[in-house]
User: What shape does this take?
Amino acid sequence: MVYDDQNIFARILRGELPAIKVYEDDQVLAFMDIMPQAEGHTLVIPKTPAVTLLDLAPEAAAYTIQIVQKVAQAIETALGAQGIVLMQLSGASAGQTVPHVHFHLIPSSVHELGKHAVQMGDQDKIKAQAEQIKSALEAL
Ligand code: 5GP
Assistant: This one.
């Protein structure tokens, strides 16, 4: 699928738009979702340009999942999450709204998920949660 380098996450990766980051290395970025479906909703993205999971090189997918696991552990520790929904929407038909592949980590139950990407979260509260997750990541 053709990659649009003006998509929101590409702009976040280039530092053109702000994000509340919890983890970054040379291949992956993890940051808080701006319209969380639950407290602690975090997104993990590979830095390589790919629209959907199917466009992502297997090596990049494998590395990204390692970081997804690490961030999930930190969310569990930091926020006392009892369970985490891992969601990955590939394609607009599946409901994908930002065309850069990403993994949602949502500390919630599938039965309690809120509406997808519709309501802005309290950014101060989200920043505080990010600090907790960052501390837990540093302790891993
Ligand atoms: P998708 O629908 O593509 O699976 O998920 C995109 C996610 O990105 C949604 O959960 C939405 O709330 C989030 N999102 C959209 N725009 C922004 C933004 O500018 N910053 C951040 N941090 N998240 C965003």
